[in-house]
Amino acid sequence: MIVRQVWTGNAYRNFNYLIACAETGEALAIDPLDHEKCLAAAKREGWSITQILNTHEHRDHTGGNASLVQKTGAKVLAHKNAKDKIPEMARGLSAGDVIKVGRTVELEALDTPGHTMSHVCVLSHTGQRALFSGDTLFNAGAGNCHNGGHPEELYKTFSRQLAKLPENTLIYPGHDYIARNLAFTLDREPDNAKAKSMLPQMERQDADKALVTTLALERDINTFFRLTNPSVIRRLREAFPDLPENPDPKTVFLRLRELRNKW
Ligand SMILES: [Zn+2]
User: Fold this and answer.
1) How much distance in Å is there from the Cα of 135 to the middle of ligand 1?
2) Strand ranges (DSSP E) for the chain?
3) Rg of the chain (C-alpha set)
4) pLDDT of residue 127
5) Residue 77 CA, ligand 1 centroid: distance in Å
6) C-beta atoms surrounding 251 within 10 Å
7) How many CB atoms lie within 10 A of CB 245?
8) Cβ count within 10 A of residue 61
């Protein structure tokens, strides 16, 4: 499996992706908003884009579908419940469905509600394990829930699915938000040494060569995976004095999500 992260350089800071089979040159494009950059990248590599996967229905993820379908004839895949919202959709995905790219790549669809209620993440099983996480999990952060999502569902997705992936899973999110998210981590946990050491580099990072994190690193720098950390809880109590003595992780997650919305 070959992965190319395509930095759009747009105001929304979207990342698009190409995943290709090294044997056949067939490629799947994830959320190819910048269809021209995706096509140019595929052409450079000698790949043909045969499938498009939308992680969810928001326009900054689906807006390139029509042009790319027209130019390549690629088939559009998305969550089965997104069919009324994504006109180009040809295949609806359910949890556990397998997406083949060429001969050598297999991706598994995960049903990951929260950011929207028809959001999929895809997990590669061939070669290096990698998660394409759309707007569910960001580097050092979590997706918002205010355009058709639900924070309790997002918590379930984090705790029941994402937190259980292997530690070395590479994380490929839908946007470059790492600097802002690390600043939020430090706001919530000022003594987080790892986040503190990374922030200056990430503020200067060239998004064309963005850092790719692992789940293990996310556990260190992503507040939404640090729900039982004493510093996180202590700081949270300053904002929510009614927080119980040993708050359950779900309560901590929901309160953090709430604070991040206003931050
Ligand atoms: Zn979105």
Assistant:
1) 5
2) 2-7, 15-20, 26-30, 48-53, 75-79, 89-93, 98-101, 105-111, 120-124, 130-134, 137-138, 141-142, 170-173, 213-214
3) 18
4) 77
5) 16
6) 16
7) 6
8) 27
53 closest CA partner among 75, 82, 24, 20:
75
**Residues in a beta bridge with 141:** 138
User: What spacing in Å lies between the alpha carbon of 151 and ligand 1's midpoint?
Assistant: 14
pLDDT tens by residue, 35-84: 999 999 999 999 999 999 999 999 999 999 999 999 999 999 999 999 99
Structure tokens at 89: 């959709």
Kindly give the distance from the C-alpha atom of residue 56 to the centroid of ligand 1, in angstroms, as a whole number: 7
Give φ, ψ of 28 to 5 degrees. -115, 135
Q: Are strands 15-20 and 26-30 parallel, antiparallel or unpaired?
A: antiparallel
Ligand 1 mean position, distance from CA 82 (Å): 13
CA dist., res. 14 & res. 31, Å (int): 9
Burial class, 261, CB count within 10 angstroms (exposed 0-12 / middle 13-18 / buried 19+): exposed
How many A from CA of 67 to the centre of ligand 1? Answer: 20
pLDDT in tens, 143-162: 999 999 999 999 999 999 99
Of 28, 30, 223, which is closest to residue 134 (Cα–Cα)? 30
> 65-79 burial, b for 16+ CB within 10 Å, e for fewer?
beebbeebebebbbb
Q: What spacing in Å lies between the alpha carbon of 145 and ligand 1's midpoint? A: 9
